[in-house]
Amino acid sequence: MIRSSFAVYVDHVDGKVHPVTLELLGKARELSKVTGHPVYALFMGNGIDAAAHELLHYNVDKVFVYDAPELARFQIEPYTAVFENFIQTVKPSSILVGATTVGRQLAPRVAARMKTGLTADCTILEMDENTDLSQIRPAFGGNIMAHIKTPNHRPQMATVRPGVLKKGEYNEAKANAVVVEPVAFELSDADIKTKVLEVVKEAKELVDLTGAEVVVSVGRGISKDVETGIKLAEELAGLFGGVVGGSRAAIDSGWLSADHQVGQTGKTVHPKIYVALGISGAIQHLAGMQDSECIIAVNKNDTAPIFEIADYGICGDLFKVTPMLIEAIKAAKAAK
Fold first, then answer.
1. Whole-Å CA distances, 285 to 16, 247, 266, 325
2. DSSP labels for 89-118?
3. Contact present, 57 and 171 (Cβ < 8 Å)
4. What span, in angstroms and rounded, lies between the C-alpha atoms of 288 and 285?
5. Which of 86, 164, 247, 284 is 20 to 30 Å from 277 at the Cα level?
6. Nearest Cα to 267, choosing from 167, 124, 166, 164?
7. Rounded to whole angstroms, how far apart are CA atoms 200 and 77?
8. What is the number of other CB atoms lying within 10 angstroms of the CB of residue 234?
9. Pair 90, 65: CB distance under 8 Å
10. For residues 206 and 291, what is the distance between their CA atoms, to the nearest angstrom?
């Protein structure tokens, strides 16, 4: 069979689909315009029929559903076996996987089993007419962009960080023409070497940076009064209904937990508004937020790189400027 389709792995927990899956479906549909190939989704789990039908609204041509009690929770051996079965049956030319906790474990195992290449943490994907997928990612600390292809092997595989791509459009009409195809399969004892006995969820609630429309981030500039700096960021973010992020310097210094980190080694975000307080703009940080719709930067160094990409730049002490921003926003809200 000729390999002539795109496939997106559906990342989910208990049927709740991770946003990166919808982003990848949107990108796969965009790439398919070059080759004319269909877009398929690979969905494995247990009791996922309703969630599978919801995916139909995102311009997918067919959803292949592997449903079994053994797939209720992620386990590397059975998930890899199912993925292999899907590839051998459908024979996709390109496979996209979210660079989530699950995706970063699963994609390398599948690529090794299929003896094909895998490019991790891509930020840009392009398609040639000969179906070679250009997989582009930052390298050497973000100083260069590496263009990687797998011309001699199929499927081509890439993982993409959440938040890098825009979510595919919701299409009600398209859903009526799409097929959900349950796949008959069997898992052997060799495919299930471990068993999940219990899942204990961590009590701590992590910040949702990638889904936020407004992110207010702090950097090394809050060092003279960390507590006040974070409180100002929280108050400003609260006025917008947003969340607080941080540069790597803020996370490495222990001022914020790792789930707040924005940047190449943190999370990639593209909110409607991104406010950078006391962040100079190292290239690793810019890589994670430069596609935000509106960037507001506050820094007392007028040569800070962050000003080169900011839509609005304020040169001044964040401890003086931020309270002024807060009061101005409060006044504007009161006027309404």
1. 29, 6, 9, 23
2. HH--SEEEEE-SHHHHHHHHHHHHHHT--E
3. yes
4. 5
5. 164
6. 164
7. 21
8. 15
9. no
10. 23
Q: List the structure tokens of 9.
A: 């792995």
pLDDT, tens digit (0-9, with 9 covering 90-100), for 139-190: 766 567 788 888 888 899 999 888 777 777 766 666 666 677 777 777 776 7
Report d(CA 283, CA 11) in Å as an integer: 29
Give mean pLDDT, residues 45-65. Answer: 80
Q: Is 101 left (phi over 0), alpha (psi -120 to 50) or beta?
A: alpha
What's the predicted TM-score (pTM) here?
Answer: 0.70
- Cα–Cα distance list, 260 to 4, 163, 250, 279 (Å): 40, 14, 9, 14
Based on C-alpha coordinates, what's the Rg of the chain? Answer: 22
CA angle, residues 309, 314, 316, in degrees to nearest 5:
130
